[in-house]
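Re-run requested by the PI after the first attempt was lost when the workstation crashed. Everything re-entered from the original request form. Ligand of interest: zinc ion.
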Amino acid sequence: MQTTIDDWPSSSDDDIVPVAESVDLSIECLVQSVLDWMAAQRYFTKNEVESLKRVEIGLLRRNATQKHGVCRYHRDTDVNSPALGPRDVKCIDIHPGLLTEKWWNYGQKVLYHEFLHALGHFSHNSDFRRLEDAWDGPDKECGRLFTEVMRRANASWLWICDGCHKEFPRRKRGRGKFRCRDCNIVLRDVAVSN
Ligand SMILES: [Zn+2]
Ligand SMILES: [Zn+2]
């Protein structure tokens, strides 16, 4: 008997899975996604969103841990001037670790935060907070987690508590100068093997 194609195990469309589209995790894509969102909000004028397109966006050093984004104004900028705006901005730098699938949503929030500074909201006052909270995204806990992950990635030492076994990744040795807040036990230095 001859084998025909009909004898092969049957397949259906359900067995076909599309190859995942490669995700664009570029800084341009991050910028575009935040500006698109801002353009759809009533808090921002078209001009404001347009003017942000001219702001130069760069990257912080990879070994930054506490700082996730920064808006740098030109030297001698009067940050208290009511005219403070994107023209006064030298650049916005964000952490390169945010350009990853895992941290993308947090990265959008960080960039949005810096855009608010660029629009002339210099201090984190109540106006700033109100605008910032309009972004319905990851909360402060996410920022703390990112700091922790970056610290771990850059750590040469772990300060370890022998009470609760918590680890505190740090660049330098603790040299017996720090205690665990919970256990009051002096933290022990362990070198990280990279
Ligand atoms: Zn800020
Ligand atoms: Zn402890």
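Saved to the shared folder this time. The beta strands are 57-59, 69-73, 89-94, 157-160, 167-170, 188-191.
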